[in-house]
Amino acid sequence: MWRPAVLARKAFSRKFIANQSFNGFQNHTFVLPQVLDKQAIAPLNSAESPFRYYSHWVSTKSCSHEIKRLFSSNPSSDSESVGSEPIKNDKDTAFIDNIEAVSSESNEGSTVFDEIKDNIAAENISDFGENEVVEEELDLEKLESVLSLLQSSGNLDRSIESSLEEIELSLNEEFVVRVLETPYVPGENLISFFKWGLKKPEFSVTKKVVELLVTAVCIEGRNVYALWDLVKEVGEKEKGILSAEILNELIALLSRLGKGKAAFEIFNKFGELDCVPNAHTYYFTIEALCRRSIYDWASTVCEKMLNADMLPGAEKVGKIVSFLCKGNKSKDAHLVYLLAKEKNINLPVSSIKLLISSLCRKDESVRFALEMLEDFPKEERKRAIKSFSYVIQGLCRAKDVTGEKQLRSYCSEDIEDAKNLLLKMIDADPPPGNAVFNTVISALSKSGEMGEAKKLMNVMEGRGLKPDVYTYSVIMSGYTKGGEMDEARKVLDAAKKKHAKLSPVTYHTVIRGYCKLEQYEKAVELLGEMKEYGVQPNADEYNKLIQSLCLKALDWTTAEKLLEEMKENGLHLNAITKGLVRAVKELEHEEVGTNEVLSAA
């Protein structure tokens, strides 16, 4: 049993401030022994202090019971007479002296200490006023036994339930709360204790004890399935006893443990358990599902969240957007973004950038990304070059406009929007670089708008940017596609002046253009010029030119010369092309022989 002084100090620390019947006591400083001094407690006695008047505190009758126990000759009994000699140590004596010192300072005729002794002597401390509250006493000895059992039950040969039955407890809410609030009790044992308590008729389950149980077990992070089964059982029997916060804590734990399906099961049980999901419910469920890559279910939960018009804080909304983008659910993520915008919730910039890049991957959603650029924070605009680049790339990409994936074409409207966005970047931020210019120039060239492409290249040069080899190559490609070989050759000459070395692709573009127009002499001439300029043709370049000479020009002589050049340069022609050269040569010889025979006849 605890020492009387400990119990008395506890009573005074929590309850012992006199009510209005203690006239004048509010002007004195009540000092707990070895805890507070007058200087420390002085603020409580100031005029501004809410504790200056004690009308809401329990009267001295409720405290006199604890003092009676202090003076009892038997510390283990609360029913001993007051007149017996107390058993005290130095701390107890100091405690009583402190009470007497406080009461002696009063200017009233009757001291506080005398009033307490009068209440003790009356021995009838059960007849309190209607507005007085008396805390139900706990059997501390049995509480100690239960805690000892639960903390060491792993070493027991018997079950916890049978051991609890032997203690002969009479459960109440306060007792269960004290057990659940005690640290270092395994969650498995708390669940067993709670299950045992549910069988007791005197114990009525409250929301408070369920919250404490869930919190205690979730902190440990284990036995989550057993806990959910127990909570579900309680919720089905006692309608309305569960709350969204209780179930949210379970879903959050399952999310941390990577149990997405179990979290989704709890989410679907909200209606049956008379609970209404809140914003955190949706967030934890989506998080749990996305951590297990169950994005279709997460999309369903997200739809319900949007229909309920609920969103958590900005950081969590940003995470939801990121989760959905990683699961290729960018349209759902964009709907979340729009609702957040409507509610003036500013998402993290990283989530906005991820959403823009995800929207740009699909042709049908790239315009959503274009609209999002208008809402980009001004202070972050300078550092958003990647986001703007993604949108321009998406707009300049060839799109499926016919419904057949193999027939893709460039949309002039999208290209125009990309060009306008580029010009806005020039006027404001972020400043575009070569890559952005090349993307738009390439799209313009492929769509046949060569005049606009050349103008944009001039703008590029006017900003101090040097068009690279790729820029010249895409413009030459546009000209050759339209059969404007003279313009393509002019661009090639300009590229040679600006760059010390060109790539084989640059020459290949013009050579293929000559071959399409069957201007094979110019093609072969450019091939030689290519070697003089220090660019070595590769085997593929020779192979395509030889095939064109054989199939269209039937010029096996030039083809054989190119074949010899390949051997000198250490390149090898594939067997099919070699066979093609021989076949054309043989056909020509046969034709010559036939003509000679006919002429001789």
TrEMBL record:
<keyword id="KW-0677">Repeat</keyword>
<dbReference type="InterPro" id="IPR050667">
    <property type="entry name" value="PPR-containing_protein"/>
</dbReference>
<feature type="repeat" description="PPR">
    <location>
        <begin position="503"/>
        <end position="537"/>
    </location>
</feature>
<protein>
    <submittedName>
        <fullName>Pentatricopeptide repeat-containing protein, mitochondrial</fullName>
    </submittedName>
</protein>
<feature type="repeat" description="PPR">
    <location>
        <begin position="468"/>
        <end position="502"/>
    </location>
</feature>
<feature type="repeat" description="PPR">
    <location>
        <begin position="538"/>
        <end position="573"/>
    </location>
</feature>
<feature type="repeat" description="PPR">
    <location>
        <begin position="433"/>
        <end position="467"/>
    </location>
</feature>
<comment type="similarity">
    <text>Belongs to the PPR family. P subfamily.</text>
</comment>
<dbReference type="InterPro" id="IPR011990">
    <property type="entry name" value="TPR-like_helical_dom_sf"/>
</dbReference>
<dbReference type="InterPro" id="IPR002885">
    <property type="entry name" value="PPR_rpt"/>
</dbReference>
<dbReference type="Pfam" id="PF13041">
    <property type="entry name" value="PPR_2"/>
</dbReference>
